[in-house]
Design goal:
This protein has about 60 residues and is mainly beta. It has one domain. Helix content is about 10%, strand content about 35%. A two-stranded antiparallel sheet has the order 1-2. The protein has a two-stranded antiparallel sheet with strand order 3-4. Strand 3 and strand 4 form a beta hairpin. It is globular, with a radius of gyration of 13 Å. It starts with 5 loop residues before the first strand and ends in a 10-residue tail after the last strand. Pfam families: DUF8053. This is DUF8053 domain-containing protein. It comes from Natrinema pallidum.
Length: about 60
């Protein structure tokens, strides 16, 4: 199981980098190799556990 580092994002957030190969397999990378804008839902499921779910982009306005 790969281990990823939690990193500072801006002044008020943290983030985790997801492997592009995994994102590509899910169709989240365009033909130029860039990660597509994709809404996701991040849910804290229990202490120290988070779930990331891809959301259908047709369910959200373009300016999100």
């Amino acid at each position: 199981m790969p281990i990823h580092k939690l990193v500072q994002v801006g002044r008020t957030s943290g983030g985790v980098v997801l492997p592009k190969s995994e994102l590509r397999a899910l169709g989240c990378v365009d033909e130029d190799g860039n990660v597509k804008d994709q809404p996701v839902q991040v849910t804290r499921t229990e202490d120290r556990t988070w779930k990331i779910s891809l959301i259908d982009s047709n369910d959200f306005p373009k300016d999100m």
